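Sample pair:
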Amino acid sequence: MSFDNNTPPGPLAEKWSRYRGTMNLVAPNNKRRIEIIIVGTGLAGASAAATLGELGYKVKCFTFHDSPRRAHSIAAQGGINAAKNYANDGDSVYRLFYDTIKGGDYRSRESNVYRLAEVSRNIIDQAVAQGVPFARDYGGLLDNRSFGGVQVSRTFYARGQTGQQLLLGAYQALSRQIAEGNVEMYNRHEMLDLVLVDGKARGIIVRNLLTGELERHAAHCVVLGTGGYGNVFYLSTNAMNCNVTAAWRATRRGAYMANPCFTQIHPTCIPQSGDYQSKLTLMSESLRNDGRVWVPKKQEDAKAIREGKKTGNDIPEEARDYFLERRYPAFGNLVPRDVASRAAKVACDEGLGVAPTGLAVFLDFEAAFMRYGQSKAHSAGLHNPSDAKVRELGVKVIEEKYGNLFEMYEKINGEDPYKMPMKIYPAVHYTMGGLWVDYNLETNIPGLFAIGECNFSDHGANRLGASALMQGLADGYFVLPYTIGQFLSQDIRTPKFDPNAKEFLDTEKDTRERLENDERQGQPVGGKLPPPPR
């Protein structure tokens, strides 16, 4: 099978605008006759379903959750990137493009990444119009902060709940289309197989998770927005339900995976505390804006901390190694995720880990407390305030910025991060690899599209922080609604597909036999295997 990425000709900065102006279209009267299946209701799936419904297509949307709002995009914390240059610090579409390419170790498809950087600006306008409560500065303008691997502030955020707020925005747009009858929503339905008719994706087999029954659903094309495969690792930050069944079944039907080895190890996760855990918890990368990463310089101090004889507060400043600031002075604690993760592992391998397992480093906010406190004291006209007063004012600033994250850490770890340095350690978080797609976000199976984390195209070997939300919404709101017309324009006279056709019945039979065989062998269906014996 030959690969054609269908990248349009012309200068990089003009490819998308030229292509968008010359691609095939589906007229409004024809859209009403075309059905589209979308699997997944995260940021990519929900935004795509809402937008395609708004355009007039008949959309069937599937999720295995009780509600689309439960999709795992809700867990994203830190923010979303966009080349708005509101901070007036030198950002631009090209700089976002270059940072993404460089951060991905030059292994991304440049045409897709430049398009992503272009449409990133539209995402913020869309979200604000939906009422997403982005953080604002004192003057009421949208605020920005920095994330790893960049030297500008381009990340828009809603405290530590950015994914949740963006998903609610997409959900309300989706709900409007459901109410108008343009989108038919199937909650508690899990995709188990892909149906091909004459080599093209024309439907899916799903299981109703309430009744256990298998169902056949047909459409003119299928869109997968089902996330990544991080749970192939036993411990990751992904929800337990993120089982990659949909994308896996697509590969079994002939779809190609690209770069499956490119898995992101996120540097700021709560360390593992025992063998009983089934997943790990992410702490937003935004914390590295103000937190400083360090370990003791001496192994005997690290050992004392591990044994509970000392705490991080007992280690004097001169006995601390702020290893990211030391090794990478240009970026400091905001180095890319892969760099920070490797550096943390190296420190722990040298016997400097600070958790009982030996696998943790400190993320310390004491300097931020004092820095923000001094600024607040100066603004309030306080002359010669005590260190305790300065710290009190600084804690309030940090609480406003990261309060929910600090609360989450204390509930899980049992330590107050306002009084003790946080402990963090890298963990599997995101998969840059995924289903191979071309410039149109179409896989090598005609009629099968993959959007968001489900595809491979935009992040190369390492994703920059706050770019996952950007890609999901870019694909769903601003890219797929255009590019899907390239395929569907050839189907405007194709009648609706019959879910009782032979291809659907045969695929359902295959699915049923596979499930029954798995049950006979005692294997879990769509879930995790138990951990290997020690």
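The chain has a mean pLDDT of 94.
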